[in-house]
Amino acid sequence: MIIVMQSHVTDEQIQLVQDRLSSMGMQPHVSRGIERTVVGAIGDERAIDQEALEALQGVEKVVRVMKPYKIVARESHEYDSTVKIGDIIIGGKALQVIAGPCSVETKAQMDAAAEGVVAAGCRLMRAGAFKPRSSPYAFQGLGVEGLEIFKSAANQYNLPVVTELMDVRMLDVFLTHNVDVIQIGTRNMQNFDLLKEVGRTHTPVILKRGLSATIEEWLMAAEYIAAGGNHNIIFCERGVRTYENAYRNMLDVTAIPVLKRETHLPVIIDPSHAGGKAWMVPALSRAAIAAGADGLLVEMHPEPEKAWSDADQALSPKELGVLMGELQGIAAVLGREL
Amino acid sequence: MIIVMQSHVTDEQIQLVQDRLSSMGMQPHVSRGIERTVVGAIGDERAIDQEALEALQGVEKVVRVMKPYKIVARESHEYDSTVKIGDIIIGGKALQVIAGPCSVETKAQMDAAAEGVVAAGCRLMRAGAFKPRSSPYAFQGLGVEGLEIFKSAANQYNLPVVTELMDVRMLDVFLTHNVDVIQIGTRNMQNFDLLKEVGRTHTPVILKRGLSATIEEWLMAAEYIAAGGNHNIIFCERGVRTYENAYRNMLDVTAIPVLKRETHLPVIIDPSHAGGKAWMVPALSRAAIAAGADGLLVEMHPEPEKAWSDADQALSPKELGVLMGELQGIAAVLGREL
Amino acid sequence: MIIVMQSHVTDEQIQLVQDRLSSMGMQPHVSRGIERTVVGAIGDERAIDQEALEALQGVEKVVRVMKPYKIVARESHEYDSTVKIGDIIIGGKALQVIAGPCSVETKAQMDAAAEGVVAAGCRLMRAGAFKPRSSPYAFQGLGVEGLEIFKSAANQYNLPVVTELMDVRMLDVFLTHNVDVIQIGTRNMQNFDLLKEVGRTHTPVILKRGLSATIEEWLMAAEYIAAGGNHNIIFCERGVRTYENAYRNMLDVTAIPVLKRETHLPVIIDPSHAGGKAWMVPALSRAAIAAGADGLLVEMHPEPEKAWSDADQALSPKELGVLMGELQGIAAVLGREL
Amino acid sequence: MIIVMQSHVTDEQIQLVQDRLSSMGMQPHVSRGIERTVVGAIGDERAIDQEALEALQGVEKVVRVMKPYKIVARESHEYDSTVKIGDIIIGGKALQVIAGPCSVETKAQMDAAAEGVVAAGCRLMRAGAFKPRSSPYAFQGLGVEGLEIFKSAANQYNLPVVTELMDVRMLDVFLTHNVDVIQIGTRNMQNFDLLKEVGRTHTPVILKRGLSATIEEWLMAAEYIAAGGNHNIIFCERGVRTYENAYRNMLDVTAIPVLKRETHLPVIIDPSHAGGKAWMVPALSRAAIAAGADGLLVEMHPEPEKAWSDADQALSPKELGVLMGELQGIAAVLGREL
User: Fold this and answer.
1) Is A330 on the interface with C (CB under 8 A)?
2) Is residue D173 part of a domain?
3) Does B240 lie in the same domain as B94?
4) pLDDT at D99
5) Last residue within a domain, chosen from A25, A41, A63
6) In this structure, are A116 and A214 located in the same domain?
7) What is the pLDDT of residue B308?
8) Is D63 in contact with A66 (Cβ distance < 8 A)?
């Protein structure tokens, strides 16, 4: 940790910083430059409250030199780790495309959707039984009944299911219904109590990025889950909020190489929620795979125009099939398999 | 609701939009212009899924004409509403400054803090017993014990207490401990299950704005609470995330006049979390009151440099006292009372 | 154009809006809904000042239904247009990678760079003689001398040159030095006098997106050039400013499919200025081509670690060669040629 | 300057960093911590290219410890400086409200506007003869003729005039027409050639903040002007671009205390372009003055609803008069004069 002092700092102020560092178990080291004095501090800065130092008189800024995350950091685990869902692997050489509708609607819709997932060559299925909706007057999902319809449709094809957990009180229901992958949604990326609870299970978790979360905050959210003992974490970039309104969210494709450098865990992309329009999905999906993502979470609906939610962003089964062909071509260029 | 069609739209596509609108209970009305055809739809658009229309072929965009919020809307309640906490009123002519430390630390700290709150002329007290921290390795708050220390310190001066609820499972504990005002934090503004539960109580709620929430999303989050029956809602702007890194968050002072136009509910400002530095707090506090806010939620610590969290943003009791004097002057210019 | 009136609008206010529209040459049409009255206006809205209508009493918002751009719009030109630079084509089936150093430094550096460009299989060269630097104390480019060194190096390999024009007073110098492609940089995307002047030439223009320009503003900046008669315009996305600071700018990969839908003109990507680090460039470049871009503008320096500016973002000639191989693979999947 | 090395750095890499620093005239100093080695560098870092260091192998990040700006920095000039326009002072104890229409339209409009400016108690007048418009098809201003109409109207009341310079080729015309204050607009904040030229004059300059400029970039733009010899610089915050679309731009009120700490130069606010609606202007104006701004640049039109541009954001002369009264009250609370 490095403490940069203000230009007109006094010796007493420098001494106070040194004393405070020592009391925190850090070893201070003063370096006087031409315009600035800098205090270096040797020790484990992760336990240190940076603001307590910034509050001291004469301190201009405090710069951390260590990464705040440990378990999820590539520094602690040099090689790519993979997450296993039954006999399906996410990460490493294998790419996975997880497809399915936004919401569970009816048994017929889910049966058709499961069939479409398999027909397109995908091996995992997604759908929402509990929906986070910005309006209290909008469809909120079928709830537990939806979970049952989903599992029943997916089981016909041995498809593991991915579904979102919003309420910590529903975790037991998810576990007893054998949800294969728990999705933590954008709005809950920093719902720390929820993160702690899924950290106590061993169920794989897809951790979506918060709408304006920094990559560092996202890694720290994963660290919450990992610190509880659950290391089966998959990052999912789904677009962030910016000033641009020509589409819904801006897919942060740069996050892919950055995460690959910072963490050993798999990274997938949700191209559907990013752009918000089905016609953008193929371009964004190809970009994600080309940039090095380990897979996709994509919306597909047997009849997109009739979907009960997010109708405008779902691919048809046929469109998904075409896209899979393109992605296989790109995967081959990169020496990967889909 | 207005549906703008693409430039080369066909009659069949226009007909399909009309049919879909009719099936949704809306009355369609086609208007053909020079470059674009527009379909107007008369009826209650709040129950309509905008995306289901955008998914139809030939549709370029859908524009809502109604406000999506009802109970919290000024349209439904022309005059300012107030929130009563015991005999203290927030909103209307009265301004309130809610002060106290970031975290409950010790009995001595809270006793000194409560004394400082009263000495500065404030009438409500804030402190956190459960802390949302971006790192799992940081101090997470004293929990229920903290709640008890807080209530005990505040009771000496009959100060109502404001404290943050993060976990829906703790709501009963908050109610049995007579928390006077429940704070919903930035990270939970769209934790819809939490909103629904506090909506079932009658305890006043301070609803902080999400880190990158639009004003409309924020109003809709309040609508979740209001729809449950709890109309005692206070909006709290606390800075939003932008590209600027000269300070922590950008205080959205424009949100004050906008909210005053859109909702009848009170609006307060948290200048401490916005800027993130104690030296910015007086300027931001004065700006907020001058712009028409109904009060402040401000961090004050008996010994700021020793605070266990957010040390760098707390005022000392003496600084708070000076600020209160300035705010009283500005309140008088605006015909309000503090 | 659609004018949505406020909820408690009077008949006089509606009449005033109609009168104003008529005086602007638009044909008004009133539609009364349950909660809102809407006035539609038929006519060419591009010449209308939207704010003059928003300023009228009782008006809530004004919604445009036409695109504000004409010449650059896909609506006016259904098929992809291409830009020819000598016998090299940008757009259509052909992809182009424009490579070279950030700044012209020395004759030796530029000779080596030109050799590297050709060796990697690229057909156009970039370098800056006039540099926009945020500090007045930083290296500002070699100026006209740099232009001469650049042309001389490029001419050895018949490479057309791309270089940035910052000052409208230098346009004649660019023309007499036979600059093949004029680059308008990020900071000048809305330097309207500069846009007008390059619009009077026939030299191809690469128009970089402003740091926080919307896609619509960018299209309008191109419309300024096109309105002057120069239709040889190439859009270049180079990352936009967001809250994220894990890298320099966020590459907006979604802008590629959106531009492809909105305009007939070619779209290229600058992966070097986007991420700001050489190690991110391959991933971003692959993503751009996979998303449908017509080419890249990429920094390559014969000895990156010794570059006088942007050292950390340039590829070495060898790295560029490897990247070209990957891009050729992706191009083939999409049925394109590089 | 501090260079933080990666975790698995080699001795050779550290040596290379030291050698490079020495060759740049800096004195390196190595400090080995538990997880990271840090190289401190003593010397004038302003002339150093940070990226050249970041490009070296084994370097994780480079942290500057000095401010990049000198002449405009408060560090170099402890007390507030003021800018004199004739006998009118901006900065120090005195507040100034500069008012007038967006565009010069007609002689009658400008005469009425000048009368309104004086009647409201303002002492400087603003209006635009050259208008930066996002559409090439929109009214671009009356040009030199507008300048003459403006000067003639203002001269009747001895009002100094403030007007925007967009094109460097028009600077001489501005000087021969005795423009009292040159405004550099948002889109030209980093038009470095324009900044250099106004830096060679002694005419006071209002430097508006770029639409998404950081405060540091803005200070550096001012440094460009100051480095040329012109220290008569006034910063003008006018709202920045964010994700929020409930209004036009977000007024960055926090920039006021931050600038006051970083620079000795005056700071004013443009509340009209920030919010974009006349009804927001009073709240934003009061907030700005309460936060410590040295004045305002506000749009006032004799007949707002008939303005040729920005109609929806201009105050009427009467509204401006009422606002002036409120601002005088707030100024008095802060011990300032308006």
Assistant:
1) yes
2) yes
3) yes
4) 98
5) A63
6) yes
7) 82
8) no
Q: Token match 């890499």: residue?
A: D13
Please state whether beta strands C2-5 and C37-42 pair in parallel, antiparallel, or not at all (unpaired): antiparallel
Disruptive mutation site among A6, A21, A31 for chain D (greatest number of D CBs within 10 Å): A31
User: What angle do helix axes C317-333 and C107-119 make, rounded to 10 degrees?
Assistant: 30
- pLDDT band of D215, cuts 50, 70, 90: very high
Q: Which residues from B are below 8 Å from D215, CB to CB?
A: 244, 246
Q: Answer with the one of D63, D94, D115 that is the final residue of a domain.
A: D63
Low-confidence ranges of chain A (pLDDT < 70): none
Residue B89 and residue B55 in one domain:
no
- Closest to A280 (Cβ–Cβ): which among C216, C254, C329? C254
> Which one, of B336, B313, B338, B314, lies nearest residue B324 by Cα?
B338
Query: To probe the interface with A, which of B70, B135, B279 has the most A CB atoms within 10 Å?
Result: B135
- Hey, are the CB atoms on C212 and D211 less than 8 Å from each other? yes
Nearest chain B Cα to A246, which residue? B61
pLDDT in tens, C193-236: 999 999 999 999 999 999 999 999 999 999 999 999 999 999 99
Between CA A199 and CA D174 the distance in angstroms is: 67
Pairing of strands B205-208, A124-126: unpaired
- Residue C276, min C-alpha distance to chain D (Å): 9
Question: What pLDDT score does C240 carry?
Answer: 98
D167 lies within 8 A of chain C by CB: yes
Tell me, yes or no, whether C266 lies in a domain.
yes
Q: In this structure, are D166 and D103 located in the same domain? A: yes
For residue C338, being part of any structural domain is answered with: no
Task: Please name the residues between 113 and 152 in chain A that touch chain B, using a CB distance below 8 Å.
Answer: 132-139
Find the distance separating the first CA and the last CA of chain C, reported in whole Å.
44
Q: What is the ipTM of this complex?
A: 0.95
Residue type, A145: E
Judge if A58 and A78 occupy the same domain.
no
Q: Please report whether residue B338 resides in a domain.
A: no
DSSP string, D105-123: --HHHHHHHHHHHHHTT--
Domain count, chain D: 2
- Taking contacts as CB-CB distances below 8 angstroms, the residues of chain C near A258 are 246-247, 280
- Compute the average pLDDT of residues B145-155: 98
Q: Indicate the burial class of B158 (C-beta count within 10 angstroms; 0-12, 13-18, 19 or more).
A: exposed
B149-163, C18-32, D33-47, D172-186: which range is least confident on average?
A: D33-47
Residue that the structure tokens 């809407």 belong to: C38
* CATH code: domain of residue C47: 3.30.70.1140
Decide if pLDDT at D115 tops 90: yes
Closest CA–CA distance from residue B5 to any residue of chain C (Å):
9
The verdict on B334 touching D (C-beta cutoff 8 Å) is yes
Q: Using the 8-state DSSP alphabet, how is residue B73 labeled? A: B
Interface check for D46 against chain A (CB to CB < 8 A): the answer is no
Name the closest residue on chain A to residue D243, using Cα atoms: A243
- Asked whether residue D43 falls in the same domain as residue D128, the answer is no
One domain for residues D175 and D315 = yes
Q: What is the pTM of this model?
A: 0.96
Q: Domain residues for D274?
A: 74-333
Domain CATH code at residue A195:
3.20.20.70
Closest Cα in chain D to A63? D63
Q: What is the pLDDT of residues A202-247, one digit of tens each?
A: 999 999 999 999 999 999 999 999 999 999 999 999 999 999 999 9
- CB-CB under 8 Å, D132 with C190: yes
